[in-house]
Amino acid sequence: MKHLAAYLLIALAGNESPSAADVKGVLSSVGIDADSDRLDKLIAELKGKDLQELIAEGTTKLASVPSGGAGGAAPAAAAAGGAAAPAEEKKEEKEEEESDEDMGFGLFD
After folding, report:
1. pLDDT tens digits, 10-68
2. Rounded to whole angstroms, what are the CA distances from 43 to 12, 27, 50?
3. How many CB atoms lie within 10 A of CB 6?
4. Rounded distance, CA 15 to CA 36, Å?
5. DSSP string of the chain?
6. 2-62 belongs to which CATH class?
7. Do 28 and 34 meet the contact criterion of CB atoms below 8 Å apart?
């Protein structure tokens, strides 16, 4: 991912076809060693392709990926469980507070 990010930064700066040396230069400027194998593969995969088209194509693919997760399950469980759900939530909150105290330090200490 870091190789791709560096490649995109270089392309954004105006170099339409960055080389492996360009990407290595960007990564080394922030203290990251480039993985030559991955970088060579990235350069080979992107050679001759329009980045704007690739980004647009990827965006449409991401739009079709379901991303609801378990968000809909909690309200359904609360509606089915009635008064049992708030008691469970309080119990979970208490357990979280206890686990924080067991650590011996707080977030802002």
Report:
1. 999 998 889 999 999 999 999 999 999 999 999 999 998 888 999 899 999 888 888 87
2. 16, 15, 13
3. 24
4. 20
5. -HHHHHHHHHHHTT-SS--HHHHHHHHHHTT----HHHHHHHHHHHTT--HHHHHHHHHHHHHTS---TTTTHHHHHHHHHTTHHHHHHHHHHHHHHHHHHHTS--TT-
6. mainly alpha
7. yes
